[in-house]
Amino acid sequence: MNERAHDKYDRLIALCKALPPMPTAVAHPCDQSSLEGAVDATRLGLIAPILVGPRARIEAVAAEHGIDLGGLPIVDAGYSQESAAKAVEIVREGKAEALMKGSLHTDELMGAVVRRDTGLRTARRISHCFVMDVPSYADTLIITDAAINIAPTLADKVDIVQNAIDLGHALRLPEVRVAILSAMETVNPDVPSTVEAAALCKMADRGQITGAVLDGPLALDNAISLEAVKIKKIDSPVAGRANVLVVPDLEAGNMLAKSLSFLAGADAAGIVLGARVPIILTSRADSVMTRLASCGVAVLVAQARKEAASKAVAA
User: Helix (H, G, I), strand (E, B), or coil: what is residue 281?
Assistant: First the structure.
């Protein structure tokens, strides 16, 4: 069976070709998939990794699976939590512009990231986005948040939405169209997510959320199907053509993303935003292309931040 084309991811990676490899601290790459992912991204010129973890174990995994480390720098760390702490420290020292998850648990990595005194917090809430290549959908699709915020409040969702909008601009989407999802397209006081969706849209009208056009509440069909929009007579610049889907909670986001992956053949590159640097969050089940796409997303996010910082200095 031939692998299908990854047109959206191919375009994404192509955008990175003109950029220098991004220095990246890779936390605890102690299994085949995480170590190969880092090496493959290096070979493609996406990242310049600093491997952080038990040196003997990393070298043993490389030898066992025929992975050529090619003299990549290794910072020795005794165990997974120490790997996470040292990787974060490397970022804080300015030696890396991104953080990449290896074979440790997400909680272990994020624990080091959110630590108040030694972590990578900013004023913005940290949130997760999937950048999805869905074969049957014309646009790259951003879904948030399916991995970090379990039951986000309205205040949390302001940052979650803004993080996703900023990501859309980093990916150079011509227009960012945000659908705030619920189970229906009308505001119902008995369904809190519909009330929050309406509030978020009004906040965008008032300039509290910027850089995109928002609409909600929208049911999933109304967000992505022009046919459904026509049937329900919804007049909206977002409905039927959203490229950002904001879910009510982590459970909904996780189920939506995995449904698209396993039922619609989609790939899901993972990125964590809102920290000082982009965080590449991959899964052991990810394909090589998905891992490369996750690195490519982080490269474009880091580049967008540099460009924004340069404009701020110039101003």
Answer: coil
In the block, which residue shows the tokens 């409040």? 153
Whether residue 79 has pLDDT greater than 90: yes
Query: Helices 288-314 and 7-16 meet at what angle, rounded to 10?
Result: 40
The pTM assigned to this predicted structure is 0.94
Task: Look at residues 57, 15, 100, 55 and name the one whose alpha carbon lies nearest to residue 296.
Answer: 15
Dist. CA 258–CA 297, nearest whole Å: 19
Contact of 26 with 87, CB cutoff 8 Å: yes
Which contiguous run of DSSP H or E holds residue 50?
Answer: strand 47-53
Output phi, psi for 67, to 5 deg. Answer: -95, 120
**Which of 140, 143, 215 is closest to 171 using CA atoms?**
140
H runs (alpha helix) in the chain: 7-16, 32-43, 55-65, 80-92, 106-114, 154-170, 192-205, 220-224, 226-232, 250-263, 288-314
Q: Do 203 and 167 touch, CB atoms closer than 8 A?
A: no
Structure tokens at 55: 């040196």
Closest of 172, 200, 166, 22 to residue 100, by C-alpha: 22
Which tens digits make up the pLDDT trace of 130-149? 999 999 999 999 999 999 99
CA-to-CA distance for 116 and 139, rounded, in angstroms? 37
| Whole-angstrom distance, CA of residue 152 vs CA of residue 145 | 9
* pLDDT tens digits for range 193-235: 999 999 999 999 999 999 999 999 999 999 999 999 999 999 9
The Cα–Cα gap between 256 and 6 comes to 20
Distance between CA 265 and CA 255 in Å, rounded? 14
Judge residue 206's burial from the number of C-beta atoms within 10 Å of its C-beta, 0-12 exposed, 13-18 middle, 19 or more buried: exposed
Using CA atoms, how far apart are residues 225 and 222, in angstroms rounded to an integer? 6
Tokens read off for 244: 């950002």
How much is the pLDDT for 4?
Answer: 56
What the block records as the tokens of 214 is 């928002």
